[in-house]
Write a structure and sequence with these properties.
This is DUF4255 domain-containing protein. About 25% of the residues lie in helices and about 30% in strands. By secondary structure, it is of the alpha+beta class. The strands form 2 sheets. A 5-stranded mixed sheet has the order 1-2-5-7-6. Strands 3-4-8 form a 3-stranded antiparallel sheet, with no helix packed on it.
Length: about 190
Amino acid sequence: MINEIDDALRRLLIRQALPNGTAEVVFDAPSRDWAARRNAPTIDAYLYDIREEVSRRERGAAAVRDPAGLVQARRMQPRWFRLSYLVTAWTKRPEDEHRLLSVVLGCLLRNEVLPPDDLPAALTDITRAVQLSVAVPAESRSIADIWSALGGELKPSLDVVVIAPFPVQLEFPVAAPATDLVAEVRNV
């Protein structure tokens, strides 16, 4: 499901922030070697952290119904995850990077959810609201620690968090519903 979220984020940025091929959108680790190979304007959305959104965990199984409304199976509830992206702009000049980051920030601020049309059916069957937040205070790791781990130099970036369901593909069939009632009376 992570790659589908990446694709939805890429489509959103290309459509609303980077029309006419203003910049390429990639999902690479922005290491020093990677940065040295960049020769075109690029927005990099590096997925640096994945954590379960435990507060959204639901217990039990949901009923799967047929068109008549009869329960056919029970399906495990989806688990929700926080996908944290470090979004950076890469150009030859810092001024151009700032301009690109500004355009991306404006796009993300206008979209508190990923557009449902960009989501795969497996997600829209669960929810039409995959939350998107940008530049929220960091909860665990500092951005400087991330840059240090990547071996790169600190540069302006946006911390983008997507909270999305991950379907658990466990489904259990249930017994057919009772259609007859048999009563027997005995003398005691």
